[in-house]
Amino acid sequence: MKNKKIIIGAVALISIIGISGICYAMIGNQEQKKVAVDQKTEIKIELKEKEIQAVIGKELPLTEIIEKITLSLGSKLVSVEFSEGMVDQDKVVYNKSNVPNSSVLFNEIGEKELTLTAIDDIGTEEKVEVKIAVIDDYTKYVEGDVAVLIENEVDILKGVSYDKDKIKEITADTSDVDWKQAGSYKVMYNIVAKDNTRTTVTGIIKVVTKDEAQTLANGGTAVLTNDGVVKAEDGSTPEGSLVVSEKERKKAVENTTSNTSNKTNTGSSASTSSGNNTNTGKKNSGGSNTGKNKEASAHTHNWVAQTTTINHEATGHYETKVVQAAWDEPVYSSRTICNGCGGDITGNIDHVYECGPGSYSNKKIQVGTKHHEAVTKQVWVQDSAAWTETVTTGYKCSCGATK
User: Do 142 and 285 lie in a common domain?
Assistant: First the structure.
């Protein structure tokens, strides 16, 4: 009997040890799972500014909103989107800072508080709130493209006009302009609107040679000098604005950095307020006559047309396209129907004893509808195709004379 107790006790001890081992293994697995959870990817979104400014009707790339997105364990992003205003993208590509080539577009002026959501390929999700101020497009109210004669560091605002009903004050930063080197340069106009909104508008300053200045003046374009404007060869004072193609504008903006590094003279900032006359140096009467007639007694001019090409970009607008029309979904419910009279006797089955043939059926019948709103998206519609225009800017002879 004593031996049986010893054997039973040993078995019990082994059972306890076995159970303890199993429990320990379960606890170990839970710890491993906890570690795996603790190592879940962390997503960190860094914005360029606390408050972002967007222009109504113009796409704002996410690269101008987001500084970078960091993922702690090397996972990959599968989605970065705002809660409103996303523009459809055929192919989304992420840069080295994990910011996609997507953009947003807004069609109403005002303050917006949106949610920016980033999701990686293992399901980790991060949200941040972003304030975006949608402002008016002030490029419509400023004519800031100006031609200037080389070697003349002028007050550029004498050649700029703007809408005083919309803009209270405007200043110009011409520090990127090399007044001694012919070429096109970017100028930044700092705008203070009537409602005290502050923004910037990009313009172009075209520094031209004497021959170029004379050709522009003969064509009616005002070319600023320290004394006024270059007069046309017929003695008239041009008042027209400089016309800059989109291709030339883009090239000037892209080349500004390299042009600035080679400058020998740094331009200064010019400023004025809305109380000053801004409509302008284009009507000043001063200026020196740069046209020089060099004629040999036996020489006959052979005038050759000088042309330039103006590339006009395609134009278009955004429209709302219906992806799926609004529709009503039938809602069904299981009901008890009398086979005799066809009535709904749900909850009153005893009715069949009062109505032949004394039987019933369970059927699904429509009891209502659920309305679904239409699904829409913004699509780009082209109004006119891109086209190229060749314009005659003047005439030149082999002797160097121009007209």
Answer: yes
> How far is 154 from 177, CA to CA, in rounded Å?
11
Q: What is the pTM of this model?
A: 0.50
Question: Which tens digit of pLDDT belongs to each residue from 149-197?
Answer: 999 989 888 888 888 899 999 999 998 899 999 999 999 999 999 988 8
Rounded Cα–Cα distance for residues 170 and 163 (Å) = 11
Q: Please report, to the nearest 10 degrees, the dihedral formed by the alpha carbons of residues 4, 5, 7, 11 taken in order.
A: 140
Are 142 and 120 contacting, i.e. CB atoms less than 8 angstroms apart?
no
Enumerate the β-bridge partners of residue 344. Answer: 337
In the numeric block, the tokens 């003279």 are attached to 265
The Cα–Cα gap between 265 and 267 comes to 6
Contacts of 124 (CB under 8 A, 6+ apart): 40, 41, 42, 43, 75
Q: What is the CATH number of the domain that holds 71?
A: 2.60.40.60
Q: Do 266 and 152 lie in a common domain?
A: yes
Question: Which candidate, 172, 49, 148, 59, places its Cα nearest to that of 105?
Answer: 59
Nearest to 148 by CA among 229, 253, 256: 229
Between the CA atoms of 389, 394, 397 and 400, what dihedral angle is there, to the nearest 10 degrees? -110
Both 269 and 332 in a single domain?
no
CA distance 99 to 82: 13
Parallel, antiparallel or unpaired: strands 51-55 and 110-120: unpaired
**The tokens of 93 are what?**
């590509």
